[in-house]
Amino acid sequence: MIETCSKRCMLIGTVCLGVLTIVILILESQLAETLSGNHKMRNKTFPTENNSTCWMHQPYKIISECHPCSDFEIRSKSIGVCIHTSFKEILKCENGETVTRSCDRVAYLEERAFWKFTIWSFVLGTASSVAVMLRTRVLNHKAKRRARQVLANGSI
């Protein structure tokens, strides 16, 4: 079935699939941002510094987004929240109390890892496609040369 498709048809199909992938990624990103509001974070229980839970009972402001703890903080265990997930975020409760809370993951690190994977996949896919096209060209050239030789020799 796929053998009957022309190069143009295959290219159009590949481009359509690429566009569809990008559209799905954009929609998924928008949906993830919509669902990851503070109301969802309130239900998660993360270890906090000094056992403060003011962020569970009152409004809070995120002073520092979730980011990795330094190697020193993890090894020295100076900040207890870094032991659990190696990530921390700093919150400021409405009453003025500042709390350091352990968090799941760092969004920008995950996004960077995703884009690295996507780019490497694209590069490897492109290199593979080019290698296949070059190999096909070489094999077609050899087949034509053999056919010419057979026809030139007069033996059919």
Automatic annotation (TrEMBL):
Subcellular location, principal: cytoplasm
GO cellular component: centrosome; membrane; midbody; mitochondrion; spindle
Leader peptide range in chain numbering: none
Keywords for this protein: Cell cycle, Cell division, Cytoplasm, Cytoskeleton, Membrane, Mitochondrion, Mitosis, Signal, Transmembrane, Transmembrane helix
Residue spans crossing the bilayer: 9-27, 117-136
Pfam families in the record: JTB (PF05439)
Subcellular location(s) of the protein: Cytoplasm, Cytoskeleton, Microtubule organizing center, Centrosome; Cytoplasm, Cytoskeleton, Spindle; Membrane; Mitochondrion
Cross-referenced InterPro entries: JTB
Domain of life where this protein originates: Eukaryota
Membrane-topology descriptor: Single-pass type I membrane protein
GO terms classed as biological process: mitotic cytokinesis
Coiled coil: none
Family classification: Belongs to the JTB family.
UniProt name for this protein: Protein JTB
